[in-house]
Amino acid sequence: MDESKNHILSRDKTSLVMRLVRSAFLWAVPFILIAAMIILWFYRSSTLTLFDDPLDATVTSLIASADSQLDDLRTGEIISLTREPLDPRYQQALSGRYWLIGQIYRDGRIVPLRASRSMAGESLKITARNADLLFDSPGVTLRARTIGPDKEPLRFAARMAFLPGLDDTPLAMIAAADSRPASRAILRFTFLAIGLMSILILGVIFAVFMQVRIGLKPLFDLRKQVVSVREGRDVRVSGNFPSEIYPLANELNGLIDHNSDVVQRARTHVSNLAHALKTPIAVLQNEAEQKKLLRSSMVRRQTDSMKKQVDHHLQRARAATRGQTIGALTPVKDIVDALARTMPRIYRDKNVNVKTDIAKGLVFRGEKRDLDEILGNLIDNAFKWTRSYVEITARNAPHDETMLEVIVIDNGPGIAEKDYEEAIKRGARLDETTPGTGFGLAIVDDLARAYKGYMHLSSGRDGGLCVSVSLPRRVYE
Amino acid sequence: MRILIVEDDVDLSRQLSESLKDVGYAVDIANDGEEGHFLGDTEPYDAVVLDLGLPQIDGISILQKWRTDGRKFPVIILTARDQWSEKVAGFDAGADDYLTKPFHSEELLARLRALVRRAAGHTTDSIDIGTLHVDNRAARAFVDGMPIKLTSHEFRLLSYMAVHKGRVISRTELVEHIYDQDFDRDSNTIEVFVGRLRRKIGTDRIETVRGLGYRLMDPDQGSSEE
């Protein structure tokens, strides 16, 4: 049975919670990363645009105000400016803000013809590729990076322009600025963005995890309920479930009911069959006894054999359905009280003193009729053999919190220790047991085992038999 | 002694009836719950053999009704139901004994005898009234140790009077407890049986109490003692 279960049911290593969290992680993280990259790109381009705009304006102003004056002997300068760019940083040496008008070569060298004071007599050098771009696209502003006179990283704007009088030599108009503040701002923003996005990712994962836990809580509750039913703490699945889970819980209850119905039907069926046979057997038996028929001994033998078969199969059918019903609970006291009330009537010719001590709230996790049969056989056996008293004790098992223990003691002749095994075996071979003459202990032993319990025989304090049986009990949480 | 058998299986009830008649009981049979309840409710039986699975009214309900209505005759349940809970239910409903099918008729007879005996307050199946010895188990009687030959009706009469020895028993009571339902109940026949019984066991053992009935007594101890 276990094997067939394994064929159908296998356990996926990942939990439902982890699957949901992982799938949320898989879509949320790339989305957040892409969003972060877009934001970073946007911030960077905005920052650079803001950075480049003043440089562009300076270049434009240089073109507008520059003029050639090859014959100006006073200053010795070839280029004159009608108005120099106003920013005071152009006046301060190596301030990080520069402008320059010069002749450019294809290799990127620039021979300055006029430069801001901040250049401190140095020149700039651009890459050959940038130089080519300038030559190839006159009138278009080039924006690129270079190294400044103070070895600082610069971002510059440059455009080629022809000045009157120097028509054959295009001059490069360059404005440059230290790019480090902009780079720092971009870097700061990048760190900030990464930090925020990381927090966002963690937050999303946590939120998803919590959402899944809360969302799946009814499912976990249902699982607990099913375990509870299986372990006998509850009889059916109960509780408040959302509309998606409710049908499942309902179906589970249906399944539990169906299970108990099937067991009940099987029992009823076999019991009806056997009971229906019992009366005809009784008739045949009596006929054989009364009429002294020819071969009446044969009829009697046959009816005895039929009776044994019926008893045997009835016992087997009962045993087959034992412990099968899920969630059955039986209070121990009710059964013990009923039997303790009935036995003295059955053994009314014997003056037996019955003492019961049943722990309060003790509930057997199993079928009523099974507990009936266990206790009925034990107490009947004790009454059959006792001289004067029968003591019945039921309590929680001392060493196993999931089990209960029933102890029945009499002061009859008892059983020698060496015969314990035989006493149990005798009844176990049901087809060889004459009803009423066996100990019934075998049935008790079978039943206890079916419930994963055990039966233990020992000597009572007055030499009688002491039988203790352990059975599963309802565990209160 | 008059016994009621409430059993729906015709063969079984017939067999039981024959077995009981063989040992000196008057027997009535009811084959369904309603008739069984009615008979038990209206006739004074000395014991009842009651099946549980009956048509119309089940055995437990019949028994409960009888007990509620104050019917005190001993009842032995004879059923195929052998679960402890069913036995408990049977005893709780007021049964005095419980026998499961299939059974040997000797066992049923022994248990019935024990019930009737217990109901009358006796401890054994044999009753001694002076030198008269009535053995209900063997359905025989002895005077001074010598067996006496009795017909079935004579033994029933003697047995009933022996069980209730020392008590004045009316003719009606004797009729009710000795004859089964189908018998022609003419109380004059009781007088005939009493006369025949007197001749066989000794005339002074059965005293006629005028206007009341008969009393079985030990002639050596006189009529004032039981």
Characterization of the model:
- The complex is a heterodimer of chains A (477) and B (226).
- Chain A folds into 3 domains: 15-224, no CATH class; 247-320; 330-472, Heat Shock Protein 90 (2-Layer Sandwich).
- Chain A contains 10 helices and 14 strands.
- Chain A has helices at residues 2-8, 16-65, 128-136, 180-230, 246-291, 296-320, 332-346, 368-385, 420-428, 441-450, and strands at 66-68, 79-81, 97-104, 110-115, 142-147, 153-161, 171-178, 330-331, 353-358, 363-364, 389-396, 403-410, 454-459, 465-472.
- In chain A, strands 4-3-7-6-5 form a 5-stranded antiparallel β-sheet. In chain A, strands 9-11-12-14-13 form a 5-stranded mixed β-sheet, covered by helices on one side. In chain A, strands 1-2 form a two-stranded antiparallel sheet.
- The two termini of chain A are 31 Å apart.
- Chain B has helices at 10-22, 33-42, 59-68, 84-93, 105-120, 152-163, 171-178, 187-201, and strands at 2-6, 26-30, 47-50, 75-79, 97-100, 126-129, 132-135, 140-143, 146-148, 206-209, 213-216.
Which stretches of chain A of 5+ consecutive residues score pLDDT under 50?
Answer: 1-6, 426-437
Helicity level of chain B, as a percent range? Answer: 40-55%
What would you call the shape of chain A? Answer: rod-shaped
Q: Give the number of domains of chain B.
A: 2
Tally of individual domains of chain A: 3
CATH topology title of the largest domain in chain B: Rossmann fold
Total helical segments of chain A: 10
Structural class of chain B: alpha/beta
Give the oligomeric state of the chains in this entry, treating copies of one chain as homo and distinct chains as hetero: heterodimer
Largest interface: A-B, 32 and 30 residues
Rg from alpha-carbon coordinates of chain B = 18 Å
Note the gap between the termini of chain B. 21 Å
The percent range for strand residues of chain A is 15-25%
As laid out across the biggest beta sheet of chain A, the strand order is 4-3-7-6-5
- Categorize the overall geometry of chain B: elongated
